[in-house]
User: Which sequence fits this backbone?
């Protein structure tokens, strides 16, 4: 009864206050009540569209905003809202048309620039920049628009200054402080982010977005306790907030509590069933739980309504890959590349699928064409380099690993791979330097020790090479490749195992015609006071018992494999 005593204007003002306090459902109920009493007005529909958008009902919000503009095309605010709603759904072309048709102002120019950036038309934004930045700001909204534009340009220090001006002019504006917090977060200023969020919460204690921003930031920083605390505070401030439940899911996922995270996402979807971000998060968690068959149809449906969201393509491609559907994954990644030509993941994603399908040549060809534009992408460089190693194209692999080690100087695997490429190119001293660097970065991994031994052997520094192989075996005592390399080094050194005092441990195995690769037919290990000939006799006898043919004089098994014998260690009596 008391509500009905208020005029329409009073109820509209009350609804606006509810929105400011984050009570969007109550505001929507009030707008609906007013709508039920008479014919709709453009201002009411436009305001209702804002609330629907905050409730993640973006399609309804867009339709409502369009209705408002059709009813009152002269309403600049309604048209601006329509433009930003279109941007929120990645409808950049339509948004650009809306902002271009608006009378020129700072707000319309910022909206136009955001639309052009979404379309990848950066040169046009650069041409607009001087005019936008020359605009003399005097209100909270103008300084906020200036801050948004500078943030879009990546000029974050100047964006902070603009938002600081807006905050000074609007000391009770919680949203401005949240924007300040977001920029501090991008800059890594976690303490400043926390202060700005606290300022926003002092103005509006139910400002859920301030809690969730802190929770996500702390989660990203690995501060488990604080992220957990903030996500729970967000839920306490508004248990009906989909944003709060989504953040809770993010925090729980960070803890590895995926089943609980899935429950949190489902709770959020009960409240905001059309929110694409929550739907996407559900698919991602299902994939993390290896429930790829359930994740795939969710992501497929999302593409029907959010086809301009690149993350959906990435996740769907990875899901198909995990389901063993390489052709489908490749198709998705190729579609994404057409829509997002600047996406740095486009080439690596396709190369990964091609490699899984054993189409190494195609993967390398794609890598060759992408390499000039991917020199700052460590993930691409690592993948491309590994593929070139498989293809044994060492000349092409060298600049790839050189760039990777420049870009990520602490990447010990990259240094070891660079050294292996130099070894294959007969540049042994340079290769040795790279393996030494790799060991310096990670002395606990066997790979660089083994690779160092290979280079030392090529330099005929056999004792040092054997020491390197021993170091590798200390870290991986059962690795057959390292044992093979050590045995070959012994053979190259000319150790034909003269009998010594005490017991010796010997390893014998077969290699192919080239003497390069160990053959998994039979491997023997023998300990005792034995000579090399005695060890070979025992080994060949075991092979005969297994049905193999043995040429003792030539040391050849089954007409094509050679026996290699090496002493591993000596235990004096």
Assistant:
């Amino acid at each position: 009864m008391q509500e009905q005593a208020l005029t329409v204007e009073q109820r509209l003002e009350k609804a606006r206050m509810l929105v400011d306090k984050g009570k969007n459902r109550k505001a929507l109920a009030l707008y609906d009540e007013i709508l039920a009493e008479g014919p709709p007005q453009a201002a009411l529909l436009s305001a209702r569209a804002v609330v629907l958008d905050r409730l993640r009902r973006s399609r309804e919000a867009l339709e409502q905003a369009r209705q408002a503009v059709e009813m009152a095309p002269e309403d600049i605010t309604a048209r601006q809202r329509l433009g930003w709603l279109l941007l929120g759904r990645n409808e950049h072309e339509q948004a650009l048309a809306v902002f271009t048709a608006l009378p020129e102002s700072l707000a319309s120019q910022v909206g136009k620039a955001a639309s052009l950036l979404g379309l990848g038309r950066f040169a046009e934004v650069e041409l607009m920049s001087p005019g936008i930045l020359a605009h003399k700001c005097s209100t909270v909204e103008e300084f906020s628009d200036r801050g948004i534009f500078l943030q879009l340009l990546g000029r974050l220090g100047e964006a902070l200054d603009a938002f600081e001006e807006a905050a000074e002019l609007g000391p009770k504006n919680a949203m401005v402080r949240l924007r300040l917090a977001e920029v501090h977060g991008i800059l890594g200023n976690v303490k400043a982010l926390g202060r700005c969020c606290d300022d926003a919460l002092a103005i509006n204690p139910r400002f859920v977005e301030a809690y969730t921003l802190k929770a996500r930031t702390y989660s990203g920083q690995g501060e488990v306790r604080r992220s957990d605390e903030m996500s729970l505070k967000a839920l306490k401030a508004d248990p009906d907030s989909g944003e709060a439940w989504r953040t809770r899911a993010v925090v729980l996922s960070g803890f590895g509590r995926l089943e609980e995270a899935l429950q949190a996402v489902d709770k959020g979807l009960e409240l905001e069933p059309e929110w694409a971000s929550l739907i996407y998060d559900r698919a991602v968690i299902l994939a993390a739980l290896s429930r790829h068959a359930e994740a795939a149809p969710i992501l497929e449906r999302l593409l029907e309504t959010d086809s301009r969201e690149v993350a959906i393509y990435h996740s769907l491609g990875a899901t198909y890959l995990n389901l063993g559907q390489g052709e489908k994954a490749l198709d998705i990644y190729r579609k994404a590349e057409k829509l997002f030509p600047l996406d740095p993941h486009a080439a690596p994603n396709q190369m990964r699928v091609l490699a899984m399908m054993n189409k190494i040549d195609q993967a390398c060809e794609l890598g060759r064409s992408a390499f000039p534009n991917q020199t700052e992408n460590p993930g691409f460089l690592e993948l491309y380099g590994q593929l070139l190693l498989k293809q044994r194209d060492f000349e092409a692999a060298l600049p790839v690993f050189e760039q990777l080690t420049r870009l990520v100087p602490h990447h010990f695997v990259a240094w070891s791979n660079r050294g292996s490429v130099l070894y294959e190119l007969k540049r042994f001293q340079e290769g040795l330097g790279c393996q030494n660097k790799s060991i310096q970065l990670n002395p606990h991994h066997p790979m660089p020790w083994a690779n160092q031994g290979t280079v030392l052997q090529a330099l005929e520094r056999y004792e040092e090479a054997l020491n390197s192989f021993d170091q590798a075996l200390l870290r991986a005592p059962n690795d057959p490749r390292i044992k093979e390399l050590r045995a070959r080094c012994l053979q190259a050194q000319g150790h034909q195992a003269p009998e010594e005092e005490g017991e010796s441990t010997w390893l014998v195995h077969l290699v192919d015609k080239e003497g390069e690769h160990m053959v998994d037919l039979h491997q023997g290990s023998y300990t005792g006071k034995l000579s090399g000939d005695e060890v070979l006799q025992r080994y060949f006898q075991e092979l005969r018992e297994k049905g193999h043919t043995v040429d003792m004089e030539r040391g050849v098994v089954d007409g094509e494999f050679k026996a290699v014998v090496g002493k591993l260690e000596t235990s004096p009596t």
User: Anything to note?
Assistant: The first strand starts at residue 503 and ends at 511. The chain has a mean pLDDT of 88.
